[in-house]
Design a protein that fits this description.
7 strands; seven-stranded mixed beta sheet; single chain; elongated
Length: 190
């Protein structure tokens, strides 16, 4: 198996919050998450909650008292704010797709475990590096790499986990996560 291979697993759907829809009516955002089970070097995908989901979230959250909601917490509050879609952006290590593509993607993997090849293997990166260093096009050497990316980075380099993990550990030690902040209650609007 490849260094960047994942096998799709179950699909979990969870409530993310309420938002104001274009019709000026309150709507619910539930988002399905395709859990990945990593293979080989990616075997920790489940523990790291790596998977795929629609590029949509409820942002700038505050908590509103809504005890009648099926999504309310034990104190009767639900998250409320605005809907943000970010299909052109990043998703904290997960694969994401536009909300419009979501039904098709979910239907392809539901009850049909699928192997995804997301990140290139070390040998693929090395082949692209050799081609660019020698002035050849990666495509002519039998490898693909995004031309815009190559223009930005020059020649790619693979970092094996033995080299990368100590750097990540040092970074985490030098940059501890801040303490959790309470989510504010929504201000009443008149």
């Amino acid at each position: 198996m490849t260094a960047g291979a994942y096998l799709t697993s179950e699909i979990k759907t969870s409530f993310k919050g309420y938002y104001l829809a274009p019709s000026n009516r309150e709507a619910v955002l539930t988002r399905s998450f395709v859990q990945f089970d990593g293979i080989g070097d990616t075997a920790n995908a489940r523990q790291r909650a790596i998977g795929g989901h629609a590029a949509a979230l409820v942002s700038g959250i505050c908590m509103q008292k809504k005890p009648e909601s099926p999504y309310a917490d034990r104190k009767g509050y639900v998250p409320v704010e605005k809907l943000v879609t970010y299909a052109g952006g990043r998703s904290d290590g997960c694969t994401s797709w536009s909300p419009e593509e979501t039904p098709e993607v979910l239907s392809m993997v539901k009850d049909n475990p699928t192997t995804l090849y997301i990140y290139p293997e070390a040998r693929d990166i090395a082949a692209v590096g050799r081609a660019t260093t020698s002035g050849k096009s990666p495509v002519s050497a039998g490898s693909y790499w995004n031309a815009t990316c190559l223009g930005e980075i020059g020649s790619p380099q693979f970092w094996p986990k033995e080299r990368l993990e100590p750097i990540i550990a040092r970074y985490k030690q030098d940059h501890p996560a801040p303490p959790p902040r309470p989510i504010p209650l929504c201000q009443a609007s008149n």
